[in-house]
Amino acid sequence: MSDSVADAHQRARYWPIPVLRAVPAAVIALVITFSSNHAAGYGLLLFGVFAVVEGIVLGVGSATRLRDDPRSRRTALAQSVITVVAGIVAIACNGFGLTAFIAVLVVFAVLTGALELAQGLRARRRSPFARDWMTIGGLTLLLAVAFLVTPPDYSQQLGGIERVSGTLDASVVLVGLLGAYFAIAAVFHVIAGLSHKWGTVAPAPSPDGAPHA
Fold first, then answer.
1. How do 155-157 and 167-169 pair as beta strands?
2. Residue 166 C-beta-side C-alpha neighbours within 13 Å
3. Domain residue ranges in the chain
């Protein structure tokens, strides 16, 4: 089987997974965008729901659609387990405030981001999905960095020219960052999945057996 035909076969099997991964990310991004509640506990609850669904989708999808790439499948399954566990912990700890929110998100982002980035780096010469994995892995690690560099005691009174009342504190900033991460990831997953779907048609072989350019 030629490389182009093999790639088309892999794309045909795997393309629904990034599209399905986009769904929980997009839903939670919309909830955060249109919700006035940006408390840390609410952020943990929303993240927990996302992580459980994301982990199940990733685990089932990888187990059933990465059979031709056992190494990447093992890494993705490990990532899915970590994601589900992080989601359960987040839901259980949603009443523990900002410290728990930061801790859960940072641990999740570092572990899963590093796994997905490493998965992409290892597969970059043998898998059409390597760039996708590297991109999402890098984005997830950036989320961890953003959470780590945001001061937990940050607080700024709103007002000024806009005359908006309220306080911009760390929980508002971090929940907003989480929503932005979900939105970017959702858009990327949809584009990646549909790109792979459109790339599932292998080039027609020429009479001598070689694929056309």
1. antiparallel
2. 8
3. 3-198
Predicted local distance difference test score (pLDDT) of residue 116: 96
* Positions in the chain short of pLDDT 50: 1-3, 201-207, 209-213
Confidence at residue 128, expressed as pLDDT on a 0 to 100 scale: 86
Helix (H, G, I), strand (E, B) or coil at 205: strand
- Count how many residues are written for the chain: 213
- Other C-beta atoms closer than 10 Å to the C-beta of 67 total 10
Coil/strand/helix, residue 67: coil
- Give Dmax (Cα) for the chain: 74
Q: Answer yes or no: are the C-beta atoms of 82 and 39 closer than 8 Å.
A: no
pTM of the model: 0.85
pLDDT at 203 (0 to 100): 47
What CA–CA distance (Å, rounded) separates 27 from 50?
9
Residue 106 contacts residue 178 (beta carbons within 8 Å): no
175: Cβ contacts below 8 Å, ≥ 6 apart: 32, 38, 39, 40, 42, 43, 46
Q: What contacts 159, CB < 8 A, 6 or more positions away? A: 165
Measured CA to CA, the distance from residue 123 to residue 132 in angstroms comes to 11
For 52, phi and psi rounded to 5 degrees?
Answer: -65, -45
Give the closest residue to 48 by CA, choosing from 36, 59, 60, 40: 40
Q: Which residues partner with 205 through β-bridges? A: 211
Kindly report, residue by residue over 132-172, the tens digit of the pLDDT.
Answer: 999 999 999 999 999 999 998 877 776 555 555 567 889 99
